[in-house]
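INFO batch 0412 | record 1 of 1 | parsing
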Amino acid sequence: QVQLVESGGGLVQAGGSLRLSCAASGRTFSNYAMGWFRQAPGKEREFVAAIGWSGGSTYYADSVKGRFTISRDNAKNTVYLEMSGLKPEDTADYYCAADRNTRVVVTTTRSTYWGQGTQVTVSS
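INFO prediction complete | emitting C-alpha coordinates
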Protein backbone atom coordinates (compact mmCIF):
# COMPACT_ATOMS: atom_id res chain seq x y z
CA GLN A 1 0.00 0.00 0.00
CA VAL A 2 1.02 3.58 -0.67
CA GLN A 3 -0.63 6.41 1.22
CA LEU A 4 -0.67 9.82 -0.43
CA VAL A 5 -1.45 13.12 1.28
CA GLU A 6 -1.71 16.34 -0.70
CA SER A 7 -1.24 19.83 0.70
CA GLY A 8 -0.68 23.37 -0.46
CA GLY A 9 -3.99 24.20 -2.05
CA GLY A 10 -5.79 27.45 -1.43
CA LEU A 11 -7.25 30.62 -2.88
CA VAL A 12 -5.08 32.69 -5.20
CA GLN A 13 -5.66 35.52 -7.64
CA ALA A 14 -5.26 35.02 -11.36
CA GLY A 15 -1.61 35.27 -12.32
CA GLY A 16 -0.49 34.03 -8.93
CA SER A 17 1.43 30.94 -7.89
CA LEU A 18 0.99 27.94 -5.64
CA ARG A 19 3.07 24.91 -4.80
CA LEU A 20 1.30 21.64 -4.14
CA SER A 21 3.00 18.84 -2.25
CA CYS A 22 2.16 15.16 -2.07
CA ALA A 23 3.76 13.17 0.72
CA ALA A 24 3.93 9.42 0.26
CA SER A 25 4.29 6.69 2.82
CA GLY A 26 4.21 2.94 2.68
CA ARG A 27 6.10 1.17 -0.05
CA THR A 28 9.29 2.38 -1.71
CA PHE A 29 8.45 5.76 -3.17
CA SER A 30 11.18 5.64 -5.79
CA ASN A 31 9.57 2.57 -7.38
CA TYR A 32 6.56 4.60 -8.46
CA ALA A 33 5.78 7.07 -11.18
CA MET A 34 3.80 9.96 -9.76
CA GLY A 35 1.16 12.17 -11.28
CA TRP A 36 -1.07 15.12 -10.61
CA PHE A 37 -4.66 15.19 -11.79
CA ARG A 38 -7.46 17.66 -11.30
CA GLN A 39 -11.21 17.63 -11.29
CA ALA A 40 -13.36 20.70 -11.61
CA PRO A 41 -17.00 20.70 -10.52
CA GLY A 42 -19.15 18.89 -13.05
CA LYS A 43 -16.16 17.74 -15.08
CA GLU A 44 -14.19 14.54 -15.39
CA ARG A 45 -10.85 14.06 -13.72
CA GLU A 46 -8.05 15.07 -16.05
CA PHE A 47 -4.32 14.55 -16.28
CA VAL A 48 -2.13 17.53 -15.33
CA ALA A 49 1.45 16.29 -15.03
CA ALA A 50 3.52 13.19 -14.31
CA ILE A 51 7.07 12.29 -13.44
CA GLY A 52 8.97 9.05 -13.80
CA TRP A 53 10.41 7.15 -10.85
CA SER A 54 13.84 8.75 -11.14
CA GLY A 55 12.59 12.23 -11.96
CA GLY A 56 14.30 12.15 -15.33
CA SER A 57 11.12 12.16 -17.38
CA THR A 58 8.26 14.61 -17.04
CA TYR A 59 4.97 14.91 -18.88
CA TYR A 60 2.44 17.73 -19.01
CA ALA A 61 -1.03 18.40 -20.30
CA ASP A 62 -1.00 21.01 -23.04
CA SER A 63 -3.16 23.28 -20.90
CA VAL A 64 -0.47 23.64 -18.23
CA LYS A 65 2.72 23.30 -20.25
CA GLY A 66 5.05 26.21 -19.55
CA ARG A 67 3.15 27.23 -16.40
CA PHE A 68 3.35 24.16 -14.15
CA THR A 69 6.42 22.17 -13.11
CA ILE A 70 6.39 18.73 -11.53
CA SER A 71 9.32 17.50 -9.48
CA ARG A 72 10.06 14.88 -6.87
CA ASP A 73 12.40 14.38 -3.95
CA ASN A 74 12.83 10.67 -3.39
CA ALA A 75 14.73 11.28 -0.16
CA LYS A 76 11.67 13.05 1.23
CA ASN A 77 9.10 10.78 -0.43
CA THR A 78 7.43 13.85 -1.85
CA VAL A 79 6.28 15.04 -5.25
CA TYR A 80 5.60 18.69 -5.98
CA LEU A 81 3.60 20.70 -8.46
CA GLU A 82 4.75 24.28 -8.89
CA MET A 83 1.96 26.27 -10.47
CA SER A 84 2.45 29.76 -11.83
CA GLY A 85 0.47 32.02 -14.10
CA LEU A 86 -2.67 30.57 -12.61
CA LYS A 87 -5.94 31.10 -14.44
CA PRO A 88 -9.55 30.81 -13.21
CA GLU A 89 -9.88 27.68 -15.36
CA ASP A 90 -7.22 26.01 -13.20
CA THR A 91 -9.73 25.97 -10.35
CA ALA A 92 -10.26 22.35 -9.31
CA ASP A 93 -9.52 19.71 -6.74
CA TYR A 94 -6.00 18.46 -7.36
CA TYR A 95 -5.11 14.84 -6.75
CA CYS A 96 -1.83 13.03 -6.46
CA ALA A 97 -1.53 9.54 -7.95
CA ALA A 98 1.05 6.76 -7.93
CA ASP A 99 1.58 3.69 -10.07
CA ARG A 100 4.52 1.43 -10.90
CA ASN A 101 3.74 1.92 -14.58
CA THR A 102 4.52 5.41 -15.89
CA ARG A 103 2.31 4.84 -18.91
CA VAL A 104 -0.69 4.21 -16.67
CA VAL A 105 -0.12 7.50 -14.85
CA VAL A 106 0.38 9.49 -18.04
CA THR A 107 -2.35 8.03 -20.22
CA THR A 108 -5.12 6.92 -17.84
CA THR A 109 -6.96 7.87 -14.67
CA ARG A 110 -6.53 4.36 -13.30
CA SER A 111 -3.40 4.72 -11.20
CA THR A 112 -3.25 2.30 -8.33
CA TYR A 113 -3.01 4.82 -5.50
CA TRP A 114 -4.68 8.18 -5.01
CA GLY A 115 -4.66 10.90 -2.43
CA GLN A 116 -7.71 12.69 -1.04
CA GLY A 117 -7.11 15.87 -2.97
CA THR A 118 -6.45 19.52 -2.22
CA GLN A 119 -8.59 22.37 -3.46
CA VAL A 120 -7.22 25.15 -5.64
CA THR A 121 -9.35 28.19 -6.36
CA VAL A 122 -8.18 30.91 -8.73
CA SER A 123 -10.13 34.15 -8.61
CA SER A 124 -10.35 36.50 -11.56
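INFO post-check: The first helix runs from residue 102 to 107.
INFO record closed
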